[in-house]
From TrEMBL:
Residues 412-636 form the Histidine kinase domain. One of its GO terms (cellular component) is plasma membrane. It comes from Amphora coffeiformis. The chain crosses the membrane at residues 351-372. Keywords: Kinase, Membrane, Phosphoprotein, Signal, Transferase, Transmembrane, Transmembrane helix. The modification 4-aspartylphosphate is found at residue 732. Residues 673-798 form the Response regulatory domain. InterPro entries: CHASE_sf (IPR042240), CheY-like_superfamily (IPR011006), HATPase_C_sf (IPR036890), HATPase_dom (IPR003594), His_kinase_dom (IPR005467), HisK_dim/P_dom (IPR003661), HisK_dim/P_sf (IPR036097), Sig_transdc_His_kin-like_C (IPR004358). Gene3D superfamilies: 1.10.287.130, 3.40.50.2300, CHASE domain, Histidine kinase-like ATPase, C-terminal domain. This is histidine kinase. Pfam families: HATPase_c, Response_reg. GO terms for molecular function: histidine phosphotransfer kinase activity; phosphorelay sensor kinase activity. Its EC number is 2.7.13.3. It catalyses: ATP + protein L-histidine = ADP + protein N-phospho-L-histidine.
Length: 802
């Protein structure tokens, strides 16, 4: 197996190397070919740009000739000068850079003096500082150096071709005003132009004027115009006037290359040679460098001033980096040469080389991965059995942990329920024995004591089961908070004080809270937490106090504290104080650890924290006491609310048990018609008896399900008992049956749909208040509710909304 793996890996490596080498070879060849094609295309584009620029200058000359070709009366030449100035402005607006434009009519000797006088008057008006010299001509100082010229007067010739109209009239162009093109320097050009009837350009010569050095060499483009046929039978008549354009070759080459300079692909140099010389030597007209800057762009072409010969370029530049094209420009043949930087061309082959290296590296990576993967598979196979064994062991451990948790819960329930249940059974036995012994006088005090034991035991079991349900809701994230504005003093602290004060206590209850402190929270759940903490404290305090306090920190967080002067909490109990199944702190008083765990869950659900203050001391000798702190987040604080608004906000809509300090009428309305809807016969009878005890004048009817309740309501509303509508309806939520029956919320919604106006109070052992209120109920009460007359009265007053 190992040998086969090595052979396969070697084959993969060899194949990868071959593919990488082939990729590099083909890539380099393809890159070189592609680069050659791009250089050819680039050269063609530059040559086309040079030709286009030449045609632009040629078109301007033809346009000038067209506008003035019919002018033969020179007595009104002053008006033509103004038109010619406007013509120049049009040309200048096109962006074409020219040094001067002019019109050259054929002037005979007898017209010379009049035209010179007219020109002198015109230029004296335009520029008084200009010294007009009349008709002049350029003469070569040295026949062997055609670029070295001088200016001289030409007063004694039979005819002339002067630059009669010149624009713009600036200091640099004064030397070209009335310049005769039949002078020695331009005589051959004029002759060739008339013979061939085609545009002619001069050789470059130094610009004459103050800024000659900055202008560089200039060239004249002379255009004879187009021969015109006056009628279809006539022969075209050659023109006897010329149009000329004086332009700088530097401006020419910059215009031709400006578009390529703005979008360079790579650095390159452009040279233009004249190949039509009689000596056979190529004359360099001008050159420009297109250099790619650091940002990939260049502002404009950089002119090359250092002279270079064609032979030097051809000899020193490799053939594939030097491309050239010949183009016809007037009577000359120009050679446009494009030289590309060899370093930038070679960089195009970098990609296939890098790609080949990457392929080679990838091949090694794949082979390495294959070897490591194969080794890993072998290792995994060896570890598979050990992993399966470990997995089985973890399953056993998890099962044992689940069984242990189940055992802890069962032991907790057995411990917490067995004692109060045994006490209740014993008390029931005592009461039964006393009642069955007819010959023995009943001891009322003993019976009352036994009944209180039964009541407290069953109340404890009920609270325990309710707490377990709430703990499960919190743990499974099914509990939804009903956040409303809550007055801590009226809605939480005073009701808790009232409940704790029902018993004869050997301590005082102190409330320390601002009367105007409101918070946005779940009113019932916060009261449940504070009541749980205060009730636990009441079981242990023999003297001193229980203090309920609240304050607002600088961070706007609210801190609620429940502190007492009891015996304190042993250190060994502190660690597991908030554990889920913590056994009672005091078996005799039946304190419950489940309540503290529920308090922690509810406070965290409200976004706060609960903790035991280990540094607290009550100040009473032998009674260190305990202090629990609840800190709620700062976003819930509402302070400085006016008293009227406070009373309106804190009006309680729903109550778990009516124990608040607000004063209600002690007298219930007389003669109300009440309907009890519950599937439990015993609960109906007990509720009926409880109601009769506090409201003996009420008429109470019963229904076992929603359908029966609807039938009774219809009968009293529109049936044979019409006019005897129910005033108050108690509606249970879940009503068991073999077949599905209507829920309490569905029955309530149906009653409201039929127009029932009675007060409806929902009943459930679970918190269904939102569901009942949404379906149309007016109130909600948790089962079982208090059967104590005063508490029941308070609940009924709240249910009736009076």
């Amino acid at each position: 197996m190992g040998r086969q793996v090595i052979l396969l890996a070697a084959s993969m490596l060899a194949l990868g190397c071959a593919c990488a080498a082939a990729f590099m070879i083909l890539g380099v060849r393809s890159a070189a070919k592609d680069q050659a094609l791009r250089l050819e295309k680039r050269t063609d584009e530059i040559v086309q740009a040079v030709q286009t620029t030449w045609h632009e200058y040629e078109t301007v000359a033809l346009w000038i000739h067209h506008n003035l070709r019919t002018k033969t009366d020179y007595s009104t030449f002053w008006e033509e000068r103004r038109k010619f100035e406007i013509l120049y402005q049009y040309i200048h607006s096109n962006g074409l850079q020219v040094e001067a434009i002019s019109y050259l009519p054929n002037i005979t000797h007898d017209l010379r003096e009049d035209l010179e006088a007219e020109s002198a008057a015109y230029y004296q008006q335009v520029d008084p500082s200009y010294k007009y010299q009349g008709f002049t001509g350029l003469v070569a100082k040295d026949p062997g150096a055609p670029g070295d010229v001088s200016l001289e007067r030409r007063p004694d010739h039979p005819f002339y071709f002067p630059q009669l109209l010149v624009q713009p009239i600036v200091r640099d162009n004064e030397f070209y005003i009335d310049l005769d093109f039949l002078s020695t320097y331009f005589a051959l050009l004029m002759t060739q132009a008339f013979e061939e009837n085609l545009p002619i350009i001069s050789n470059p010569f130094p610009h004459i004027g103050p800024n000659a050095r900055s202008k560089g060499n200039v060239m004249f483009l002379v255009h004879p115009g187009v021969p015109i046929v006056e009628s279809w039978q006539d022969t075209p008549t050659p023109n006897r006037a010329m149009a000329s354009v004086l332009f700088s070759f530097s401006a020419f080459i910059q215009r031709a290359t400006q578009e390529h300079a703005a979008h360079p692909e790579h650095s390159e140099s452009i040279y233009i040679f004249d190949t039509s010389t009689t000596s056979g030597t190529y004359v360099l007209f001008g050159a420009a460098d297109l250099t790619v800057g650091a940002d990939g762009l260049d502002v404009s072409p950089q002119l090359v001033t250092e002279p270079v010969s064609w032979d030097t370029l051809h000899r020193e530049t490799p053939g594939k980096y030097l491309l050239h094209r010949d183009i016809q420009v007037a009577q000359q043949i120009w050679k446009v040469v494009v030289v590309t930087s060899p370093y930038e061309v070679q960089s195009q082959t970098t990609y296939p080389i890098v790609g080949g290296v990457i392929m080679l590296f990838a091949c090694f990576v794949v082979v390495g991965w294959y070897l490591s993967h194969t080794y890993r598979d072998l290792k995994l196979q060896r570890l598979k059995q050990a992993t399966e064994a470990e997995k089985a062991s973890l399953i056993v451990q998890h099962a044992a942990a689940a069984a242990d948790a189940e055992r802890q819960r069962n032991e907790y329930l057995a411990h917490e329920v067995r004692n109060p249940l045994s006490s209740a059974l014993s008390a029931c036995s005592f009461v039964g024995s006393a009642l069955s012994d007819g010959g023995q006088r009943l001891n009322n005090e003993a019976i009352v004591e036994d009944v209180n034991v039964i009541k407290s035991s069953l109340t404890y079991i009920n609270d325990l089961l309710r707490s377990m349900l709430d703990v499960n809701k919190v743990a499974s994230k099914q509990m939804v908070l009903d956040v409303v504005p809550t007055d801590l003093y009226r809605d939480v602290f005073e009701p808790v004080k009232t409940i704790i004060s029902r018993r004869e206590n050997p301590f005082t209850i102190v409330l320390d809270v601002p009367s105007d402190l409101l918070i946005n929270t779940d009113r019932m759940r916060l009261k449940q937490v504070v009541l749980n903490l205060a009730s636990n404290a009441a079981k242990f305090v023999d003297k001193g106090f229980i203090r309920l306090s609240a304050k607002v920190l600088s961070s706007k967080a609210v801190v609620i504290a429940v502190e007492d002067s009891g015996p304190g909490i042993p250190e060994e109990k502190v660690t597991d104080l908030f554990a889920r199944f913590q056994l009672s702190l005091d078996v005799l008083n039946q304190g419950t650890g489940m309540g503290l765990h529920l308090c922690q869950g509810l406070v965290e659900l409200m976004g706060g924290t609960i903790s035991l203050d280990s540094s607290y001391d009550s100040g009473i000798r032998g009674c260190p006491g305990a202090r629990f702190e609840i800190e709620l987040p700062p976003t819930v604080v509402i302070q400085n609310t006016p008293a009227a608004t406070t009373l309106e906000i804190t009006e309680t809509k729903i109550s778990e048990e009516r124990t608040g300090p607000m004063q209600f009428s002690n007298e219930l309305p007389e003669g109300l018609n009440v309907l009890l809807v519950d599937d439990d016969t015993v609960l109906r009878k007990l509720l009926s008896r409880s109601l009769k005890r506090v409201a003996p004048t009420w008429t109470i009817r019963e229904a076992a399900n929603g359908e029966t309740a609807l039938s009774l309501v219809r009968k009293n509303h529109t049936g044979e008992d019409a006019g005897n509508d129910f005033d108050l309806i108690f509606m249970d939520h879940y009503m068991a049956s073999v077949e599905r029956q209507m829920l309490g919320t569905e029955t309530t919604q149906a009653m409201r749909h039929e127009g029932v106006k009675a007060r409806i109070c929902g009943l459930s052992a679970n918190d269904r208040r939102n569901a009942f209120i949404s379906s149309g109920a007016d109130h909600f009460m948790l089962k079982p509710f208090s059967s104590e007359p005063e508490s029941l009265k308070a609940d009924l007053v709240q249910a009736l909304g009076i």
